[in-house]
Amino acid sequence: MKFLKSGLAVAMAAFMGIAASQAVAADAKFADNLRVVIGSKSTGGDTYQNSAIVAQALGEKLGINVKVDAVGSSAAFKALARISNGSTIMIFHDQSYLGYLYGVKGYFDIFDDFIVGPTIAINPGNAYLVPKSSPYKTIEDIIQACAKDTKIRVAIQPGGVSEIGYSALKNAIKLRYPGKEGNLVAVNTGSQSDKNQLLFDGQADLIQGSVQANEQYTQLPAEDQKAMRFVWLTAREETIKQTKPEGMGSTTQAHLLDFVSPKVSVTLDGKQDFTFDKEFFFLYNKKMDPALIEVLDKALGEIYAEGKIQEVQKNSFFIPNFKPSAEASAYLKDKMEKYEGIIKSIH
User: Fold this and answer.
1) What global pTM score does this model have?
2) Kind and range of the H or E run holding 36
């Protein structure tokens, strides 16, 4: 009898605990002001633009003020590590783990040091370009030039999104023509304008750029020193197919599809092509209340189910891409491990 009473007490306590937990989750809410720090200092770039779209929708859905603060990656990570009460969260993209894989100071293993939250969008515009006057018409021409011991200079900003395509191209050359990958040479520089200038001045044969930043130069006549040509977009074919038919600027979706796999092949492992979508997602403090994370997942799920935000994102050349926290974390960890293999293969 004592055993039965004890068992009943334990069961009741467990039930009460679950009920209390559910009540806390139901009552969890954010303060009136939510700060979203981003890993960029620019208020004109894609990180700010994308974050602002999502922040506005979140603010309306939760009935709070959501402010995007462009503080840069180092300050954003520090703020996130310092504040655990949910009043500060972060939005960034693949740079957050690529910087760590490349050993950039101020980056961390986000899966150990933070909580990886939901994905919200893709920027499909990661691109590689050559001058219109270049003898290299395709990415295959560049691979073959390296195979024949021609040095190909690639302007990149080292340590992240700008470098991962370069690493993949170098890996592909190594797989197809072992020992020739050293003919693909990085020219490390800074901003997009710096990379562009190297191309204008003939100091680079190939640059990393973007559809948004460089499409205007692809419309210039061939005799113009600034005229460029796309040779590769790293995005998946299915990602580009989700853009608007009119594409970007004067470059239609149909034309953009000419620069992605399978039409442009940069092998990943000899069997499948390398692709890379620049994806944006939330990051949280490791000790943030799980109930608040549930609130954000639920709110974002409702926002994307309503369908309005997708049109806003597509108008800004973003691809809507909501995955709730658990799914997003597993997906991004797998993505990180795949790219880690590429980076290790050439270092």
Assistant:
1) 0.90
2) strand 33-38
The tokens for 147 are 């195979």
Residue 143 CB partners (closer than 8 Å, separation 6+)? 169, 172, 173, 176, 177, 266
Strand 33-38 relative to strand 184-188, pairing: unpaired
Q: Under CATH, to which class is 31-124+278-345 assigned?
A: alpha beta
Every domain of the chain with CATH number 3.40.190.10 lies at 126-259
d(C-alpha 91, C-alpha 82), whole Å: 16
Kindly report the CATH class assigned to 126-259. Answer: alpha beta
Return the beta strands (E) in 234-272 as ranges: none
Whether residue 243 contacts residue 235, with contact meaning beta carbons closer than 8 Å, is answered with: no
Return residue ranges of the chain for CATH 3.40.190.150. Answer: 31-124+278-345
**Tokens standing for residue 90:** 């972060």
| List of residues 6+ apart from 249 with CB closer than 8 A | 215, 216, 219
Q: What is the tens place of the pLDDT at every residue in 223-257?
A: 999 999 999 999 999 999 999 999 999 999 999 99
Provide the residue type at 216 as one letter.
Answer: Q
